[in-house]
Amino acid sequence: MIYKRSSALFAEAQQVIPGGVNSPVRAFKAVGGDPIFVKEAKGAYLYDEDGNRLIDYINSWGPMILGHAYKPVVDAVVEKAQKGTSFGMPTQIETEIAQLAVKMVPGIDKIRFVNSGTEACMSAVRLARGFTGRDKIIKFAGCYHGHSDSFLIQAGSGAVTFGTPNSPGVTAGTAKDTLLAPYNNLTEVQKLFEANENEIAAIIIEPVAGNMGCIPPSEGFLEGLRELCDTHKTLLIFDEVMTGFRLAAGGVQELMGVQADIVTFGKVIGGGLPVGAFAARNEIMDYLAPVGPVYQAGTLSGNPLAMAAGLAMLKELDSDPQIFKRLEEKTEYLHKGMSKVLTENGVVHTINRLGSMISVHFAEKPVTDFASAANAATDTFKKFFHGMLAEGIYIAPSAYETWFITDALTYQDLDETINAVAKVAPGLK
Length: 429
Ligand code: PMP
Hints:
Elements: H1 4-16, E1 38-42, E2 45-48, E3 53-56, H2 71-81, H3 92-104, E4 110-114, H4 117-132, E5 136-140, H5 158-161, H6 172-175, E6 178-181, H7 186-195, E7 200-205, H8 221-232, E8 235-239, H9 251-256, E9 262-265, E10 276-280, H10 282-285, H11 304-319, H12 323-344, E11 350-354, E12 357-361, H13 370-374, H14 378-390, E13 393-394, E14 403-404, H15 411-424
Parallel strand pairs: 3-13, 5-6, 5-7, 7-8, 8-9
Antiparallel strand pairs: 1-2, 2-3, 4-10, 9-10, 11-12, 12-14
Helix pairs in contact: 2-11, 3-11, 7-8, 12-15, 14-15
């Protein structure tokens, strides 16, 4: 495939945008080469500026669960745009999407909309601190909750891909209030509680981790966190920015039957427009301004175009409960197909999967936390990435990311992907 025009556009972008990108994970720093510039996308496919067609396994890092340019979403946005794009005043559609979200997600009474997953998580932690009157939070190594200061402590995703899991610019004062534990390790969490009695406001966790590749929680882990939080009067925050409205209509809370105190959303809830949200029961949400003392605000929060896209998306998911099963079946098919050809070619690998989230680590041992993810062979991943790209398959340009399966993918697309793996595999040993 030829990427001449993408490379030229990248060179131009680098003159005026740091690193040529508006979010680091878009750069190919971890795998080498120039990023691909997208011209348009439809269904399961991206069309780049050089005229290549790529099967897309990133799907805007999660939102496009029904495929790109999904007609009901596009129509809803176009219709709204003609009536004004922002007012900074209440609109009915905000209540409509809130009602639907409250219906779909277990255990929440109220939801507040913001503009990104970062804002959602940042606000959720502030709310937890205000509610409990405590300062410290526990996060897990390799989990990513956006780029707000208190989360850039052993963060996953681009932060680790680019070697800055603890970013300069985060003050020591902020860092000291973020306590760290390894994912899937209840004993270490217990120790943190013992060493910081009555000081921990919240545990924040990706209940299925997606920012060190995909790492599902081990059996009893989330239940154990729930118990520890109850014992210590600490709030449990599920960061469902990736998993919300993706793994089930009600996210991981529904799928695994564990109730969080605060849940955050992003990605799918905005249908591809900039939306985040956080939600909880009344007792907690009533701590937020203008009702309560914890301040949080946004000029463009609840923006009509964003709400129209989100509402159209949630309506589709709500009206078609089979979608989550369909997505899981497609993901399982891909998993089995890829694993078979990699094994046949003697390539050591571990594929983790849950619902429509999947990732490939070139690791011999199970990948269950950040340390085991970091043990995977990065050189093999680089070869794999470029091999797949040459075959017209676009996966995330880092092993510390998850692939997102969309309903627009056909079994023919999945077969094309598995055939590409078969072609690339002999060069990976
Ligand atoms: N939480 C999780 C679990 C995420 O995966 C991300 C982004 N990938 C965020 C929070 C931050 O969301 P945003 O990029 O919209 O700020």
